[in-house]
Structures are given as structure tokens and as C-alpha cells.
């Protein structure tokens, strides 16, 4: 009630109190007067609104100071009115309050009722509620009647008004619902809540906060009353009605949400916002401690069940066909948001158990079930393994009871989880192979189980997508051979279905992803993918992929109809041939592209070029920018989520979106393609390290991903250290690894950045990449092995590397710049690793650490910091923090030293897996280029002494040391030197692959000399000192496993290894080649180890065929003379050793004969220096043979033939090479006199080997024509003397006497090439030979057969051991060629030589005596295989004369 001027009654009353004194003497008089006034002018409804505001100071100053309470007036008025009406005061108050609420909620400005009040309504309602509170305090208000009257209002209740009643503790929502409301209450609440959600998007911030409070308070009421605890189940019936209403409201609102989800694409944005507002009901923190935890879990469990079973209209067949549309990124964001909120209330295991329970007990909505599976595997890292366990359980139950329902459930879940990519779950093809691809699967227990499986697969066929059918066909279940027909029936059915889908199994791509359950990919699209994959492999290996070669032979229709057209798509050819052009050219040269098709392609490319020139237009590939921009935007959104810890729960969902955009940017996504990634395959990822190739689009994508990772890491690090950044970055890298087709480009880009551009990278790049490779190693299970090709310098390919080993191998320490980069990178990586995973258990932490990283730091830090070489006295005062690494002024050496001193890092160094062994240290040190090293020569020498003598030599073998064993240390160094030469391409740092590190070799020499200081053997000890060097060298050759399918590579390795062995021996002190032993009471020289090594290995790398190179020959003789110092009589020791040499190792004496002019001065000088006595007898004898040969040629003196004749012949041959007879050869040979036949045979052998050497090693200075002429002269002399020289060409086992010695001395390759030399002598073969030498025909035929075998079998022919500084590249110092080239080494035209040999035999056979023909019978079978015509001729002339005449007579008829 208002007075004049619009002032309230209370204001008037207060104002009057201030103006004059009250005429009433007491409060009672005043109250009576007021009641009389009200009785005359009363409006009770207005009165309730007026007196509600009792906090105004005017009242306190005016009325209350006289003891008159404003509330007492309304109480008195209500009592007076109630007495007049004959009703209770509380009843009257309640009815008047309802009337006021109804009046307040009537908003003339808004004809339709809205859930929120305006500001004026809110103010008036507040006044009313304050009055009602006062009445309640005086027990003058009836709640139950108020609730009843509320439901009798003409207009529906306003939601906010009810909330004010609830929040003011006047009437709670539960109490209001307990009134006789019935279905109307449910309808009113649902419509009001929907209206509230719809209005929430268009209100102010203040009203939005109010709406959220209304929703949260009511949600708490619904949960508290709708999901009571067992202790509350005995409540009164009226409370059960409240529970029913609360459940009904939640059920109706959930149906509203799910209906909106089904129409999300058609709904407007406001409806989506409204539903999202209601989803706040499912925020677990909303309920805090207000709702009982069990009630809350019951509510969420009930809701999840309702979602999974809502509107189950889809059949299983529909699910099979449509589930590809229900992946995480294709599912409604509203539904995925609902799942993610619901699943927060449970552990992953509980969620999957609930899902399993629903599947077993309810009819489900398959779309909701499978989208829930996708959400779980994407958002919960543990879900993948738990789903595998669930699938195993379902299959066990399915085959145990032959239950189709469990079977189909397992297949649907496996396919759905696989849709999300291998980063979160194994591809379907892998799951199918693991489940049914071996005899131990569930289907292998009985025939009934097998029939059950095949019948189930057969029932799926009408609904299957083509890729699933291909998986079943390409990886069929393992079945016993007796039941093979059952499987063939299914395969026939599946192929029929593929034909119906117009997908031919013959048109399958070369690299088709069988795990992607997409609709049938058109052959054109698959062929384009195959071309790109083949190009990647070709650019990495520079070889035509095996799959392409196989397709050109075994899958000709697909190859010619799809692959080649896709490859030969016309384009404007670049001026510089690119990878595609090189690939096409290789296929053309291999006759894999028809000439007409190739010509058409070139013509089409020419036409396109002309068209481009005419149009003068440059196409802008803007169409490819759109997916990249989308990916960039999503990565930026991900970065904002990673930085804010409150948003981490959104990261998994955002990563799924990023993955989808990445697929589009890589060209894998389309409207019909799936969200699954390629199945993990066993094929290696190949990277060409010297020149890693990257196409434009993949490089832009990889650069964007790496840049985004670095930016995200730095942004997150500015707020939190790595250990408080959550799993976001790990999940990002894991997502990248799930894209199999991204991995080759990613690894190639890492190679470019780390191997080629490392020293030029900035601090931010180094920090980002260091963290990236740590996470890459964390995901190593998702990445196939890497085959890193380090270039042509590696003769034998290295083993496949894990991703951790791969990026560690890219961190090479060779130059000053690379040392600085590797130190910074490894320090950053280790610091990030130790900070990021500091909370892991020790076992888990060690499993995450890449061993190569810790080992690299063990090499770098002590090398560059003197402080790290000592014993740590105390731990670093402050640990190296991740944030300090971001500081621009960081001293990297000090940072690494700080990391080194940390107790945690030192503990890691005690783990065996992370200890840098002596061998590994040597291999790293041998990579260093001394002239470009960060250390000076003296600093490097100090470091070597510290590492060898202080660190590794005394260290136990368990810690990678040598246990103080010098011999063991020498062996490790020797093996490391040899391995490093095979292992690495040092580029410009080394002149050749056979060069050895002089500094490390010096350390080896020092250790070997120190070994010689050990006590000598005592007299009477028959055992010689172990010659460990030769044992090691021999062990490397015999203990190596041959490379599978790579005989050529193995021979190259062996040849290279032997050349290195020779250089190692030359680098060691000469005395180490010879040891001493006691024979009786005297010391003798023991050369057996050296002789054995020469006979088995060293002679086979000699280019002269019968002699070692000069350097190793001179080294042995120097060692022999030095070792003789230990003998009592040096001359006797040397004589005995050389006498033994004649029988055990004749090649050493033959070498001395060849090199004696150079060898003699050095030996005489050394002997004189050591002993000052006449030369030892055997040495003097060698000198005498050389002098006799020289005099024989130069002065015509007689040449004394001594025993053994082959040694005399060797010296005479050496003299002939030094002093050419120049036309007097025949005369000189005739002067040899009788008894020189064996000497002449040996001379012929040496000349023939020189003839071969002239072809295979022309730089040795031996002239082919001169050797041939001299050989013919010797042969003529032998024929004149009637000497049986053909025996010279028998095998070493069958050769007699001295010929056997000659064969033993010759190298294996020279021996195998003797047939070439034999048939070079045919001009001098006389017909009399056939009669005089019964074995000649047998030898000639044997040589011819061996000649053909050389041509047919393809024997590898390495070149000589020339100075390796003359060669670079693959097999430096080696030349490898095949059989055809082998023959061309001796004959310009190998076929001409074979033809000449054949004609010679065909002409000689008719003139051979019967005895000669009889000797060749054992060779006939081999001859028939290689030359049937020649064999027939031999058989013809081998028959008796009677048979021949009879055959001629029969031919007449």
C-alpha cells in the first residue's frame, strides 16, 4: 500500500516518527491505532510485500526504538483477518503468499511464461520471501498448504521462483514435488528445464550464473531423491513418489538430449547450445560432498545404461554396414561429450565392465554402444588393453557355448576400436590374425569350433565391406589340411561378394591397407597410393621395389591396367630428373614398361608442356593448402588446451580431431575413407641417410607437426616443468606414430635436421627436437624397425634399428660443430627425460630411457670436461632444471657437467644397460676427424690415456672394462678398428675406407709392446706362447655368419676385412708376427700361427697369385730376425724357421724370391745391426739363388738347379721379370740343360699366374703380352723335352710332387682362373701332344668345363690388394664383376675364348687315342649338362670301330 507521492507505508511511518513526537503513550496504543487504520483500508497481499523489507534504518530509528516490531504488525493483521474468517493464521498466510507469488510471476511484458524472472519480479519476490521467513520463524506459515496451493495456480510455476523457495529453505523442491502434483510436475519440470537451457544462450553473465546455480541445485535434488541408498528404500510411499518424479525428469531430459543428438546436423546452433548446457548436470565436481557417492555412481551408471539402450532400432546387420560412420571424429560431439562426462565417474575397467553387462542383459542401440567404444579407446590410454581382454573373454564364451551373440559382439568391438588407428588399438587385420591365424586359436580345438567360425563368417558376407573380406581372404584362419575344403568354400563365397561389390582381388594394390574397413577403394585411387609408396621406397633404396617386380610378373593385369597408367600420368617433366623420372627410367631399362606405352607417355608429357607454355599459366596448388590450414588451426587449438591444466581432459578428443585433419592433409581422407590407419607391417622403414628425400606435401606436414610440437612444449614449459605438463605431448607423438604413412617422411625429416643441419639449429629447435625424440622412443612399439642406409661406403648393410637406435645413430660426433650440437642435444634430451618421468618407478623409468642417449653422454661429457674424468666427491649443489636450458646465456658445458653430477644420473650409469663399454667408446672415438676435432692433438692424447688406462683397462668386464687384462684390451681395440672401417662412412674425414686411426693404432702398439714384457717361458716348456692377434683375426673370419641371400656382400666384406688385417699386422711391431717356444733345452722360433694365417687367408688377397705383397713379406722377415734375438743361436733359429717354411708355407719363400732385390738390402742391414755376423745360412742361400739367376740371364753363366726346384724357379722367374731376355728367352731356356724339367714346369706356372695377374691387376706392372709370349716359349721348350706339363693343371689334391706345392702357394682366385690361362696357350698346342700325353685331353676337357662353369655360375672376381688410397666408395681397393666380366679380364671377348676352346676340343677329339678318350669318361656327365653337342662327339668317337660301322650301315636304311 503506497501513500501520497508513491511513498510506501513504512517510509511514511518512519518519516512521521522523525518529524514529531508520537501522541500515543505506549506501543500498545500505537498498535491499536494501526490495526483500526488497517481494518478500514486493508490490502493483505500488498501488506505482505510492504513489510518484508525490515532492514531499513528508518524503521529502526522510528518504530523499533519504541519497541514496535514491523513483523508484529503483519502478525496482528493476519491474526485479526484469520479470526474474522474463521481460519488458522498459518493457512491464511500460506494462501496469501501463493497469491503474491502468482501475481509476481505474471509478467505483462512477456505473454509466454519463461523460466527466469526479470529484475523487478526478482526484487518483489525477495521481499515476499523475507516476510514468509519471518512468519515461519513465528510459526505462522503452513508449508504443506502452501505447496498444495502452488499446484492450484492458474499459470504454471516459474522455475526461478521455485528455486528461490528452495534455496531460501522455505519450501524445498522435494517437498513441493511431494504434494499432489502427479504427472503435471514431471511435465512442468521438463518444459521449464528445457526452457532454461534454451534461454541460457541469450542472457547476461549474471543471469547465466543464476541459471547454472538453478540447474546444479535441482540436479542435486534429482540425484539425492531419485537414486536412494538401500537404507532409504523403506521410506514412506509419498517419498517414493518424489523419487519417481526425479527419475522421470532425468529420463525425459536424457531423451531430449539423445533426440537432439540424432538431429544434430539438422538442428540450429541454439539447440546444440541448450543441450550442452544441460550436459553440465553430468559434471562430477558439481555434486561435491552433497550427494552420496553411491547415489552419484548409481545415477551415472543408470544414465550410461539408458544411453546404450536408447531406441534400439538398428539391427546387427545395420551395425556391420554403418559402424564406419560411428568413429570418434564422426560421432556427434554432443554424444562424445556426454560419454566423456559419464565415464569420469568410473575407472576404465569399471566402464568396460558396465558396457559388457549392458551388452549381456539388454537390447542395445549399436550406434551408441560402438561410439562409446570409440570414445573409450581414444580418451583412455588403458582402454586398448582392457578391450583386448574383453575380446578374448567374448571369444572364449562364444566358442564355449557356440554363441553367435558373443561372436558378433567381439567382431563389432574389434572393428570399432581398430577404426581409431593403431596408436590406440591394433588394426583389425592384426587382431584377426592373432585370434584365428594359428592352430592355437579358439577355433582349432575341434571341427565343430572351426565350422562355427566359418559359418559365422559366411553369415557376415552379405553385409561385409570389401576390406574386411580381403583381410579374411589374405589372412585366412588356420585350418588343418583335412578341413581345407571348408575354408575354400568360405573364400569362394567371399570372392563372390567382392565381385558383387565390383572389387577384384586381383586388383588389390601393392601396398593396400587390409585393416582399413572402408568401402571398396577404386583401383585408380589404390594405384595412385601404390605409386607414391613405391616412389618412397625407390628414393630410399635407389632400387625397384620387390613388390613392383613381383606384380609385373605375377599380377600382370593389375600392373599393366592400373599401376603403370597411374605412374605414367602425363605431366610437365622437370629439367632436372626427379625421383619419379628416375623410377620410370629404371623400370624402362628393366623392360618393365612396354615401349609403346613409354612412347605415348613421353608424347603426352610433351603435349602438356606445350599447352602450359601456350596458356602461360602457373597453377597455384591452393587446393592443398586448405587441409594444411585446417590442421594448423586444430594444432593451435590443441596448444591452448595443453597450456591450461583445467583443459587437459579435452586433449584426447582434440587429438582425435587433429588426427582426422592430419589424415586429410596427407591425402588419406575422403568422404568414403575410414578413420583407421594402416596395419602394422613387418616391412622396414628405409631412410637414405646421405640424401633423405622428401616430397613437398609430406615435408610441409611434418614441418608443421614438428613446429607445433616445439611451440606447444615451450608454451607449456613457460608455466610448468615437464613433470607437471600431463600426458598431452606423449599423446600427440603417439597419434603421429599411428599414421604409418607419415613415419617415412617424419624419420627422413629427423635425419635432415639431426644428421645434416644439427649444428645450425637454434636453441628452441634443439629443445623441441630433444623432447620429441624422447616421446618418439616412448612410442617405439608403434614404429617398425628402421633400415638406415649410410651410403655406398657401407659394403654390408647394417642391422635394422629401433627408432631409439636410429635417432642416436644420427648424432655423429666428428667435428667441433657436431660435438657442440650433440652435447647440447643430448643434455636437453636427458634433462627432459629425467624431469618428465621423474615420478615413474625405477623399472619403468629405465625401460623408457634410450640407452644410446646415456652412452652418448658418457662419451661426450668426460671428453669435453676435465672435471667429469675424476671421482665425484659431492653431488651438484643444484640439479639441472629444464627451465635453465631455455636461457639464452646457458653455458652448455657447465649444463652437461651439472647433469653429470646429479645423483640420479650417476645411478643410471650403474645400470648395465646404460654403461658405455670399451668397444662402444672406441667406435665413437674412431668416428672423430682428428683434423676437425674440438680437442687439440695433445688434449686428445690425454683423453685417450685416461679412457684406456684409468677408465676401461682396470674396470671389471661387468662394467664394460677389461678386468686389467692387456690381451683383452688389445683384442677389443683391434676388433673396434676393424668394425669401424666396415661400419661408418667418414666422408671427407678419411681418405679411404681402409685407412686406420693412427692414434688408436699407436695405443694398440703400446699395449702389444707392454704385453711382450711378461715373463718368458721356462726351458722345457713345449707349448708356444699364444699368438692372440692371429687368433682374433682368424676368429673374425670363421665366426661370422654368412649373410642370407647375399653371397656377393659376404665376399666383399671378407676381401675388405683381409686388406684391413694386413694393414693391422703392418701397424704392429714386426716381432709380434713370430713367437718363441722351447724345443728341448733350446728356444726356437715359432711361425706356425703366421703361416696358417697366410695359407688360409692372406695369400688370397695377393694380386700376384703366388706371392704376398712386398710390405707384409718384408714385415715378416724383419720380425723373424728380431725374434731370433731370443734364440741361443740366431742363425740356427732363422735357418730352422725358413726350412720349416718350405713345407708349411712355401708362398713366403716365393714372395721373398719375387721381392728379393728390394728385400735383400734391408735384411742384410738389419742382420748386421743386430748380430754383426755373417748372414744366416738359409738367407745366404736365398741370396745365392738370386745371384745365380741374374748371372744366368745377364752373363750366360749356368744356372744350378737345386732342391726344391720350384724355389730355384721362383728366383729365376724373379730375375726374368727384372732382366727381360728380350728375344733371347728360347736360348736361355735351352741352356738350362737336362734335369731342369721340374724347374721349367714351375716357371710355366709362375708365368701363367702372371698372365692372369696382368688382366685382373694391370697396375701391378705385369704385361699380358710379354707374359703370354714367355709362357709360350716355356711351353714349347717343355714340349721339345717331352715333359708331362699338363699335370700342372690338375687340382691341388691330384697334382703330383712339386705341382702340389705350387697349387698350395697360389691364391684361390688365380687357381680358379687357370682355365683362362690354359686356353690362352692353344696356339702352341701341337697335334703330337694328343699322342704323347694321354692325360692332355682329360685336362683340356676339365679346363673347358671349368671355363663354362665360370661363365654359367657367375663367380665373383675381386681385384687386387692395391694401395687403397687410389680408390674411394663401395669396396675401395676392390673391383667386383660377374662371370662374363671375369672372362673379359683375360679375353677381350669371353664368348670368343669359349668358342675357340670348343673348336679346339672338337678338332682334337677325332685324333685322340682310345686311352685318352677312356680317361675322360668321369667328366662326361658334367659335359652333357653344359655342352651336349661336345659330349655327343666324345661318345661318338669313344665307341669301338665295329659299332661305328654298324651305325653307318643302319643309316643307309
Structure description:
- This protein is mostly helical.
- It contains 69 helices and four strands.
- The termini are far apart.
Strand order of the largest sheet: 1-2
Per DSSP, what share of the residues sits in E-state strands of 2 or more residues? under 5%
What do the pLDDT scores average to? 80
Structural class: mainly alpha
Helicity level: 55-70%
Terminal residue distance? 152 Å
Tally of DSSP β-strands? 4
The best one-word shape is elongated
Distinct helical segment count: 69
Low-confidence segments: 1-6, 52-68, 616-624, 669-681, 990-994, 1355-1387, 1441-1453
Taking all Cα atoms into account, the compactness measure Rg is: 49 Å
Q: Largest sheet, if any?
A: 2 strands, parallel
Attribute tags:
1453 residues; mainly alpha; 69 helices; disordered N terminus; disordered C terminus
Short description:
This protein is mostly helical. The chain has 69 helices and four strands.
Topology of helices and strands:
Layout: H1 9-19, H2 27-41, H3 44-50, H4 57-62, H5 70-85, H6 89-105, H7 119-137, H8 143-151, H9 159-167, H10 173-177, H11 183-199, H12 205-226, H13 237-262, H14 269-278, H15 293-309, H16 316-322, H17 333-343, H18 348-361, H19 366-379, H20 383-401, H21 404-419, H22 428-436, H23 447-460, H24 466-474, H25 484-500, H26 523-541, H27 546-554, H28 556-567, H29 579-589, H30 595-615, H31 625-643, H32 651-665, E1 685-688, H33 696-717, H34 728-738, H35 743-756, H36 763-778, E2 786-789, H37 803-809, H38 816-836, H39 842-848, H40 851-864, H41 882-885, H42 892-901, H43 903-908, H44 918-926, H45 937-952, H46 966-983, H47 998-1011, H48 1028-1038, H49 1047-1067, E3 1075-1079, E4 1082-1086, H50 1088-1096, H51 1110-1123, H52 1130-1144, H53 1146-1170, H54 1177-1194, H55 1205-1218, H56 1225-1230, H57 1237-1256, H58 1264-1281, H59 1297-1305, H60 1308-1312, H61 1314-1318, H62 1328-1332, H63 1336-1353, H64 1379-1386, H65 1390-1404, H66 1410-1415, H67 1420-1426, H68 1428-1438, H69 1441-1452
Parallel strand pairs: 1-2
Antiparallel strand pairs: 3-4
Helix pairs in contact: 3-6, 5-6, 6-7, 6-8, 9-12, 11-13, 11-14, 12-13, 13-14, 17-19, 18-20, 19-21, 20-21, 23-25, 24-25, 26-28, 27-28, 31-32, 31-33, 32-34, 33-36, 34-36, 36-38, 37-40, 38-40, 38-42, 44-46, 46-47, 46-48, 46-49, 51-53, 52-53, 53-55, 54-55, 55-57, 57-58, 63-64, 63-65, 67-68
Amino acid at each position: 500500500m503506497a501513500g501520497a507521492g508513491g511513498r510506501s507505508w513504512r517510509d511514511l511511518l518512519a518519516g512521521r516518527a522523525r518529524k514529531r513526537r508520537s501522541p500515543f503513550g505506549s506501543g500498545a496504543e500505537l498498535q491499536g491505532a494501526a490495526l483500526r487504520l488497517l481494518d478500514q483500508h486493508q490490502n493483505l497481499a500488498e501488506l505482505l510485500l510492504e513489510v518484508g523489507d525490515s532492514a531499513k534504518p528508518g524503521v529502526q530509528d522510528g518504530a523499533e526504538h519504541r519497541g514496535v516490531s514491523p513483523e508484529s504488525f503483519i502478525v496482528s493483521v493476519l491474526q485479526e483477518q484469520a479470526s474474522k474468517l474463521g481460519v488458522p493464521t498459518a493457512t491464511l498466510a500460506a494462501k496469501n503468499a501463493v497469491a503474491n507469488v502468482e501475481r509476481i510471476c505474471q509478467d505483462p511484458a512477456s505473454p509466454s511464461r519463461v523460466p527466469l524472472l526479470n529484475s523487478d519480479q526478482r526484487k518483489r519476490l525477495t521481499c515476499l520471501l523475507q516476510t514468509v521467513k519471518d512468519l515461519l520463524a513465528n510459526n505462522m506459515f503452513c508449508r504443506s498448504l502452501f505447496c498444495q496451493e502452488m499446484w492450484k495456480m492458474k499459470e504454471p510455476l516459474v522455475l526461478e521462483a521455485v528455486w528461490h523457495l528452495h534455496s531460501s529453505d522455505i519450501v524445498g523442491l522435494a517437498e513441493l514435488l511431494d504434494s499432489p502434483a502427479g504427472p503435471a510436475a514431471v511435465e512442468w519440470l521438463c518444459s521449464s528445464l528445457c526452457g532454461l537451457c534454451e534461454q541460457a544462450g541469450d542472457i547476461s553473465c549474471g543471469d547465466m550464473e543464476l541459471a547454472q546455480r538453478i540447474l546444479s541445485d535441482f540436479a542435486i535434488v534429482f540425484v539425492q531423491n531419485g537414486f536412494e541408498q538401500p537404507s532409504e528404500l523403506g521410506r514412506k510411499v509419498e517419498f517414493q513418489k518424489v523419487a519417481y518424479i526425479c527419475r522421470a525428469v532425468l529420463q525425459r531430459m536424457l531423451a531430449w538430449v539423445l533426440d537432439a543428438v540424432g538431429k544434430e546436423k539438422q538442428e540450429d546452433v541454439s539447440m546444440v547450445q541448450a543441450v550442452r548446457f544441460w550436459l553440465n548436470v553430468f559434471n562430477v565436481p558439481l555434486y561435491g560432498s552433497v550427494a552420496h557417492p553411491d547415489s552419484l555412481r548409481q545415477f551415472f551408471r543408470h544414465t550410461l545404461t539408458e544411453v546404450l539402450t536408447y531406441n534400439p532400432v538398428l539391427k546387427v546387420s545395420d551395425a556391420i554396414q554403418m559402424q564406419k560412420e560411428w568413429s570418434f571424429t564422426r560421432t556427434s560431439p554432443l554424444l562424445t561429450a556426454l560419454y566423456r562426462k559419464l565415464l569420469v565417474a568410473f575407472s576404465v575397467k569399471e566402464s568396460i565392465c558396465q558396457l559388457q553387462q549392458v551388452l549381456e542383459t539388454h537390447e542395445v542401440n549399436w550406434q551408441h554402444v560402438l561410439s562409446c567404444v570409440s570414445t573409450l579407446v581414444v580418451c583412455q590410454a588403458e582402454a586398448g588393453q582392457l578391450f583386448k581382454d574383453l575380446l578374448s573373454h567374448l571369444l572364449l564364451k562364444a566358442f564355449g557355448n557356440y554363441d553367435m551373440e558373443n561372436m558378433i559382439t567381439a567382431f563389432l568391438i574389434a572393428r570399432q576400436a581398430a577404426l581409431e588407428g593403431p596408436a590406440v588399438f591394433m588394426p583389425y587385420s592384426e587382431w584377426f590374425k592373432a585370434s584365428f591365424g594359428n592352430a592355437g586359436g579358439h577355433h582349432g580345438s575341434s571341427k565343430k569350433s572351426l565350422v562355427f567360425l566359418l559359418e559365422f563368417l559366411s553369415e557376415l558376407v552379405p553385409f561385409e565391406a570389401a576390406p574386411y573380406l580381403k583381410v579374411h581372404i589374405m589372412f585366412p584362419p588356420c585350418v588343418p589340411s583335412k578341413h581345407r575344403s571348408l575354408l575354400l568354400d568360405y573364400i569362394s563365397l567371399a570372392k563372390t561378394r567382392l565381385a558383387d561389390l565390383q572389387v577384384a582381388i586381383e586388383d588389390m594394390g601393392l601396398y593396400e591397407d587390409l585393416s582399413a574397413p572402408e568401402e571398396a577403394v577404386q583401383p585408380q585411387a589404390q594405384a595412385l597410393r601404390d605409386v607414391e609408396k613405391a616412389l618412397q621406397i625407390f628414393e630410399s633404396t635407389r632400387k625397384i621395389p620387390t613388390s613392383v617386380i613381383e606384380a609385373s610378373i605375377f599380377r600382370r593385369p593389375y600392373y599393366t591396367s592400373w599401376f603403370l597408367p597411374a605412374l605414367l600420368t602425363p605431366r610437365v617433366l622437370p629439367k632436372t630428373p626427379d625421383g619419379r623420372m628416375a623410377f620410370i627410367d629404371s623400370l624402362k631399362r628393366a623392360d618393365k614398361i612396354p615401349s609403346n606405352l613409354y612412347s605415348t607417355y613421353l608424347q603426352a608429357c610433351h603435349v602438356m608442356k606445350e599447352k602450359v607454355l601456350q596458356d602461360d599459366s602457373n597453377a597455384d596448388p591452393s587446393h592443398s593448402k586448405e587441409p594444411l590450414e585446417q590442421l594448423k588451426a586444430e594444432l593451435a587449438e590443441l596448444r591452448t588446451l595443453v597450456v591450461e591444466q583445467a583443459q587437459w581432459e579435452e586433449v584426447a578428443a582434440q587429438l582425435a580431431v587433429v588426427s582426422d585433419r592430419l589424415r586429410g592433409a596427407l591425402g588419406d581422407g575422403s568422404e568414403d575413407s575410414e578413420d583407421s590407419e594402416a596395419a602394422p607391417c613387418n616391412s622396414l622403414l628405409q631412410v637414405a641417410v646421405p640424401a633423405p628425400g622428401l616430397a613437398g606435401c609430406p615435408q610441409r606436414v611434418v614441418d608443421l607437426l614438428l613446429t607445433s610440437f616445439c611451440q606447444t612444449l615451450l608454451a607449456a614449459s613457460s608455466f610448468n616443468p615437464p613433470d607437471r605438463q600431463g600426458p598431452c605431448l606423449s599423446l600427440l607423438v603417439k597419434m603421429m606414430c599411428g599414421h604409418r604413412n607419415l613415419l617415412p617422411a617424419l624419420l627422413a625429416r629427423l635425419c635432415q635436421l639431426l644428421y645434416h643441419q644439427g649444428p645450425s639449429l637454434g636453441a628452441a629447435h634443439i629443445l623441441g627436437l630433444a623432447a620429441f625424440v624422447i616421446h618418439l622412443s616412448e612410442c617405439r612399439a608403434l614404429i617398425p624397425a628402421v633400415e638406415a642406409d649410410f651410403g655406398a661406403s657401407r659394403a654390408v648393410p647394417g642391422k635394422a634399428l629401433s627408432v631409439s637406435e636410429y635417432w642416436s645413430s644420427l648424432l655423429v660426433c666428428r667435428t667441433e660443430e657436431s660435438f657442440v650440437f650433440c652435447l647440447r642435444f643430448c643434455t636437453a634430451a636427458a634433462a627432459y627425460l629425467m624431469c618428465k618421468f621423474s615420478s615413474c618407478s625405477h623399472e619403468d623409468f629405465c625401460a623408457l630411457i634410450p640407452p644410446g642417449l646415456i652412452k652418448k653422454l658418457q662419451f661426450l661429457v668426460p671428453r669435453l670436461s676435465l672435471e667429469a674424468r675424476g671421482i665425484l666427491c659431492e653431488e651438484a649443489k643444484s640439479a639441472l632444471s629444464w627451465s635453465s636450458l631455455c636461457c639464452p646465456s646457458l653455458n652448455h658445458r657447465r649444463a652437461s657437467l651439472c647433469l653429470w653430477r646429479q645423483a640420479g644420473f650417476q645411478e643410471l650409469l650403474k645400470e648395465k644397460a646404460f654403461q658405455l663399454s670399451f668397444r662402444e667408446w672406441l667406435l665413437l672415438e674412431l668416428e672423430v676427424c682428428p683434423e676437425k676435432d674440438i680437442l687439440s692433438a695433445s688434449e686428445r692424447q690425454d683423453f685417450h690415456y685416461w679412457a684406456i688406462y684409468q677408465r676401461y683397462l682396470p674396470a671389471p668386464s661387468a662394467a664394460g672394462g677389461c678386468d686389467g687384462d692387456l690381451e683383452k684390451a688389445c683384442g677389443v681395440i683391434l676388433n673396434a678398428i676393424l668394425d669401424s672401417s666396415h661400419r661408418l662412412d667418414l666422408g671427407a674425414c678419411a681418405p679411404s675406407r681402409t685407412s686406420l686411426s693412427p692414434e688408436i693404432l699407436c695405443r694398440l702398439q703400446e699395449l702389444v709392446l707392454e704385453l711382450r714384457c711378461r715373463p718368458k717361458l721356462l726351458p722345457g716348456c713345449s707349448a708356444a706362447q699364444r699368438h692372440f692377434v692371429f687368433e682374433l683375426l682368424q676368429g673374425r673370419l670363421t665366426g661370422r655368419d654368412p649373410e642370407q641371400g647375399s653371397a656377393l656382400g659376404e665376399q666383399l666384406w671378407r676381401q675388405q676385412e683381409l686388406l684391413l688385417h694386413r694393414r693391422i699386422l703392418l701397424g704392429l711391431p714386426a716381432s709380434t708376427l713370430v713367437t718363441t717356444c722351447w724345443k728341448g733345452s733350446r728356444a726356437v722360433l715359432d711361425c706356425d700361427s703366421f703361416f696358417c694365417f697366410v695359407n688360409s687367408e692372406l695369400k688370397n688377397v695377393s694380386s700376384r697369385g703366388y706371392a704376398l705383397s712386398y710390405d707384409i713379406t718384408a714385415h715378416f722377415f724383419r720380425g723373424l730376425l728380431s725374434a731370433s734375438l731370443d734364440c741361443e743361436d740366431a742363425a740356427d733359429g732363422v735357418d730352422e724357421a725358413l726350412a720349416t717354411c718350405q713345407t708349411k708355407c712355401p708362398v713366403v719363400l716365393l714372395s721373398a724370391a719375387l721381392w728379393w732385390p728390394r728385400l735383400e738390402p734391408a735384411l742384410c742391414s738389419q742382420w748386421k745391426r743386430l748380430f754383426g755376423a755373417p748372414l744366416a745360412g738359409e738367407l745366404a742361400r736365398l741370396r745365392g739363388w738370386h745371384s745365380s739367376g741374374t748371372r744366368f740371364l745377364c752373363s750366360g753363366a749356368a744356372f744350378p738347379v737345386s732342391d726344391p726346384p720350384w724355389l730355384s724357379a721362383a728366383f729365376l722367374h724373379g730375375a726374368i721379370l727384372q732382366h727381360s731376355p728380350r728375344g733371347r728367352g728360347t736360348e736361355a731356356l735351352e741352356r738350362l740343360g737336362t734335369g731342369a724339367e721340374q724347374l721349367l714346369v714351375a716357371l710355366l706356372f709362375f708365368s701363367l699366374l702372371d698372365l692372369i695377374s696382368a688382366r685382373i691387376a694391370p697396375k701391378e706392372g705385369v704385361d699380358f703380352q710379354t707374359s703370354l709370349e714367355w709362357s709360350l716359349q716355356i711351353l714349347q721348350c717343355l714340349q721339345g723335352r717331352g715333359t708331362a706339363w699338363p699335370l700342372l693343371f690338375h687340382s691341388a689334391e691330384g697334382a703330383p710332387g712339386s705341382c702340389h706345392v705350387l697349387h698350395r702357394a697360389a691364391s684361390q682366385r688365380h687357381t680358379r682362373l687357370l682355365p683362362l690361362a690354359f686356353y690362352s696357350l692353344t696356339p702352341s698346342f701341337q697335334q703330337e701332344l694328343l699322342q704323347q700325353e694321354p692325360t692332355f685331353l682329360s685336362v683340356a676337357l676339365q679346363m673347358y668345363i671349368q671355363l663354362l662353369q665360370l661363365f654359367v655360375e657367375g663367380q665373383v672376381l675381386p681385384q687386387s690388394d692395391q694401395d687403397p688410397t687410389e680408390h674411394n666408395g663401395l669396396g675401395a681397393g676392390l673391383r667386383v664383376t660377374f662371370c662374363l666380366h671375369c672372362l673379359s679380364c683375360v679375353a677381350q671377348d669371353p664368348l670368343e675364348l669359349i668358342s675357340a676352346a670348343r673348336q679346339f676340343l672338337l678338332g682334337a677329339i677325332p685324333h685322340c687315342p682310345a686311352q685318352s678318350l677312356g680317361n675322360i669318361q668321369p667328366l662326361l656327365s658334367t659335359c652333357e649338362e653344359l655342352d651336349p653337342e661336345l659330349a655327343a662327339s666324345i661318345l661318338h668317337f669313344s665307341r669301338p670301330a665295329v659299332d661305328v660301322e654298324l651305325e653307318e650301315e643302319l643309316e643307309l636304311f
